[in-house]
Amino acid sequence: MNVTILNTPSVARLQSLLALALMVVGLGLMTDTFLTSDNGWNILRQISVNLCLSVGMTLIIISGGIDLSVGAVLALSGAVAAGLLKQGIALPFLGVHLDFTITGAIVSAIAVGAAAGACNGLAITRLQLPPFVATLAMLSIARGLTLLWTGGFPITGLGPSFGFIGTGAWLGIPMPVWEVLVIVMLAALVCKRTAFGRHLYAVGGSERAALLAGVRVERVKLIVYVVGGVLSGVAGLLVTARLDSAQPNAGLGYELDSIAAVVIGGTSLSGGRGSIVGTVIGCLIIGVLNNGLFLLDVSPFWQQVIKGLVIIVAVALDRFGAPKGRAG
Amino acid sequence: MTSTAATSHVLEARNISKSFPGVRALQDVSLRLSAGKLVALVGENGAGKSTLMSVLAGVQPPDRGEILLDGTVISFRHPSEARRGGIATIFQELGLSANLTVAENIFLGEEATTRWGTLDYAAMHRHTRSLLARMQLDIPADAPLHSLRVGQQQVVEIARALSANARVIIMDEPTSALSQGEIESLLRMIKELKAAGVAIVYITHKFEELADLADEVAIMRDGRMITQASYESLTHEQIVSLMVGRTPTATHARRVRRSTKEPVLCVKQAYLPHPSRPGDYLVRNVDLHLCRGEVLGIFGLMGAGRTELLETIFGMHARRARLDLAIDGREARFASPAEAVDAGLAFAPEDRKRDGLVLDMSTQQNATLACLGAMKRWGLIHPALETECARTLLQRIHWRGSSLREPVRNLSGGNQQKVILAKWLATRPKVLLLDEPTRGIDINARNEIYALIEELVAGGLSIVMVSSELPEIMALSDRIMVMCQGANAGEFAADTATAEAIMTAALPNSTRSRA
Lengths: 328, 515
What we know:
Shape of chain A: globular
Oligomer: heterodimer
Number of strands of chain A: 6
Strand order of the largest sheet of chain B: 6-7-8-3-9-10
Number of strands of chain B: 22
CATH topology of chain A: ABC transporter involved in vitamin B12 uptake, BtuC
Low-confidence stretches of chain B: 1-7, 247-251, 510-515
CATH class of chain A: Mainly Alpha
CATH architecture of chain A: Orthogonal Bundle
Shape of chain B: globular
Largest sheet of chain A: 2 strands, antiparallel
Largest interface: A-B, 29 and 35 residues
Number of domains of chain A: 1
Low-confidence stretches of chain A: 1-9, 322-328
C-alpha cells in the first residue's frame, strides 16, 4: 500500500505510529492487564464512537471547515431513535399513531443527522457563515431539541434486538468495531479514489483555485457536512444501543475529543491535508491513553491534563515533520 | 542638477538593486529628493516603482546600494524606523485600521500616553483636530474610520504622515479611489506640503494631475531608472515613449495565423459593479468578440479592470455582474465557473500560486483536477488511468519536471504555468482566458510559454490574453484591446499598432485614438 497520501510525508505517519507503539509497549510492561485480548477489544469498543465522529470530522477539516455540533447531533439522533422505538409518534392531525420498527428508528436517526448536517452546510454555503459559527449554533440548537424531545429525562429500555448494534458481536468481534471498520474503509476509499474526495482536498487546499478549476465548491461543502451529520447519527445509535438508553446529555464535549483525534492524526486544521488512516491512529492513541491511565489508577483529573499535553506534543512533532509552506 | 551638492537632498537613493527569486526588480536605481519638490515617478506595471517605494519606506532592505537621509547613510530595519526618520508612505491600499477612530489611527504605533500609562485621549484629540482643521477636513476626531468615505480616509492617512513630522512623503497613486472634488482638495494639500518644505514622491498614471504639481519626473522601466529630469524639459509624449522604451527586438517571431472569421466568444455590455462603492464599476460596458484560432490581447494599467473582465466572463461574479454572452453563437449564462468550464471556457489566473494551483497537491493531481470524471472506473478514480492521463497532458505542454508526484509547490514558475495549461487541455476548451501568462517567469520559460501558445492556437484554440507587458502583447496578439478604468479604451490591429499609441490609450483621460 502506498503510505504517502497527498504529500503527507510517511515520516509523520511513522511518528504517530511509533508513539502509539511506544505507549502500547510501555503500558504492557507497566500493567498485567493492558496487553490482554479482552482489554484490546474493550479499547476498540470504547473508541468506536469517537472514531465514527472523527471520520466525518476528518473529511470536514480536510475541506477547510470544522464541525462543533457532532456531540449534540449525536445526542439528538440517539434520542429520536430511542423515542420513536419506545413510543412511536402520534400525528394528531392525521389521527394516527405511528410505531417504528428497529430499522425505522435507525433510518430516522440517520435522517436526523443528515438534516442537521444539511442545515450546517446550507448555513455555511448560502448564508456564508464561518463553519465555526454555523456549527456552534447547531450545537446549541441540537442540544436544545434533544432536551425538548426527551423532556430532560433519559429514554431507557429499548430491548436486546436494538442493543445488539452496540453490544453484540459477530465472529467474536464486537458489532461497533465492525460498523466503524466499514465506515473507515469507505471513507478512506472516498478520500483516495473518488472525485469527491479529491475535490475535498482541493477545496481545503485553495478554495479559489478549486473554484477556478471548475469544482462545484458549494456542493462539495454541503455534501461533506451532510456526511458528517450522518456519521454523528450513526454514532448516536451506537451510544444509545450500548447503554440501552438515550441520555439527553450524551455526547457532551465529544467534538473536542474528535478534533483532538483528527489533529493528532496529522490532519491540518487549515485544510487540504490529512488522512483517514491518520485519524484512526489518532483515535487509537487517545483510546490507549485513556485506558492505560485508568489501568494505572491515575486520577481522572490528571488524565485530562495528560491528554492535553499529548495533543501538544503530537501536533508539534507533526509540524516538525511536515513540509514547510513557502511564503508568496 | 550635477552641480548641486549631495547634501542638499533630503533623501537620496544610490544604486539600489533588489532581486526576488527569479526576478530582478531593481537594478542600479538612483533617486534624489529635495525639500519642497515633487518628483513624479512613472513607469509601466512591473517597472519597479512599488519595489523602490518599499525599499525607501524600510519595508524591504535593498540587496545593494545605499540610502542617504540628509547626506548620511542610513539603513532601515523596520518601517517604523523610516517613519521615525521622517519618511511617510501612503500606500495604494489604505494602511489604516477600519475599526479605530480617526485620532487612534493617526497616533497608531505612536500613541500619546498620560503619566499613568493610559492613552491620553485629550491630547490626541486636540492634536488631531488641529491637523484636520489644517487640511480642511470637517470630521470628528473620534469618528470610526470605516464611517468615512475613501477620499476622507486618504486624507487621514496624509494627516498621519504630517503628525509624524514627515519630511518625505511617498504617495502611490493617491487619487485612484477619489472623486473629482476630493482629488482637487488633495492636490491643494500637496501644494501646501510643498510650500512647507516637504519632499514628495508621487506615483501616478494620470499625467494631467502633474501639470502644476510636478517639479521633476523620474521614469522607470524594467527595474531601471531611465531618467530623472525636470518636468518642464519633457512633453507627455516624450514621457510615454521613455516609459515604453524602444520596442525590444521580439524574442518571439509571430507565426502566420489561420484565424477564421467564425466567432467563438461574444461578450456584449459587460458590467461589474464595485463590491463596496455603489455606482462605481470595475468593468463598464465592455464588448468583446473572439474568432476561432485568434488571440485577443487585452492591455491596460493596474486597476484597469482586465482581470475582473476575465473573471466576469468566467462566471465568478455571477451574483453581481451583468453581461450578454454567446459561445459559438449560442447564448450562455454562467452561475459559476463550473458551468463556464462545461461550456468550453478555461481560465489561467494571474496569481498562479493562490488561484491557479492547489499547492498542497502533486503535479499530477493538479493536472487532472478539472477532468477527474474521465479517469473513473466503477465510479472510482483509477490510479493507472490518472497517471497515464497526466503524463499525456504534461507531454503535450512539454513539461520537464522530475516526477509527477513532485509537490507542485516546488516547481518553478514556468513549470507551474505549464501544469495549469495542462489541466485545461484536459477539458478540451474552446476559449482559454490567460491572465498575465508570464508574470514572474524567467526569459527561457517565457519563450517556451509563447511557443506553446502558438501551438495551441494552431490547434484551433482561441485565446483572450491579458498582459501588462507591451512587447508580449504586441508579439502574440492578432488584435489588441486596451482597457482603462474598467472600459474599452481602444482597439488596434496588431500589425498597425505602435507601443506609443497603445500606452496613450491606456492612460486615463488622455486623448484616445482608435485604429
